[in-house]
Task: structure prediction
Amino acid sequence: MRVLGAAELLSLWERGMPRHALDRAALLAAAARPDWPAESIADLPLGDIGASLLRLRAANFGMHVDAHADCRHCGQRLSFALDVAELLAEAPPDDAIERQTEVAGLCLRAPSLRDLAAVAALEPADAADALLARCTLAGRPAMLDDAARMQVDEALEALDPQADLAFSLNCVACGREDTVQLDAAALLWDEISARAGALLQEVHQLARSYGWSEAQILALTATRRTQYLALVESAS
Ligand SMILES: [Zn+2]
Result:
């Protein structure tokens, strides 16, 4: 997986900032997988996208993730640590992924970023129905009873297990269990934003002290930037 150069990371951050979260996920996936045709990314199964983003995150920011979520029951902020390697352990190689499944008289495909964007403005229950309708290649999803609908949900989960990075946490305040949904794009974006902010600060300091251009400063290795910053600091 690619390690982003300083200039590339800043460019990615600048292009990603004004985008909607789903569009930003597509941008980050394109950076993670330059071998994927750009126009195909919005139509790939969500699990492929998520795994590519986790791999890019691991290559650039390490395997360890410190994250937090608010308890749905009492609002307590819960901190937890994750290991990207564990999250990726179950990710099948791209070419081993089954793209379609048949269940309850339907033929289904895994949802994509384009599907999520199409239903993003709907109420949650309507969005789930609309998503299923979009992902149905054959059959009539509106005719399903509750038991069949549950089968369908399980089949979709099995079709693209990496799409739903969820796990349970016990709340330290109220003791109840909550399910936390992990957003790989948001995890990666937080790191990119923080790194971009730090890089801009470094450019600002070094440009002011040495008169170098932004391009010259970003072309330095991180080790050299750190050394020069230490010299600037010690001289002031
Ligand atoms: Zn709680």
The first helix runs from residue 6 to 16.
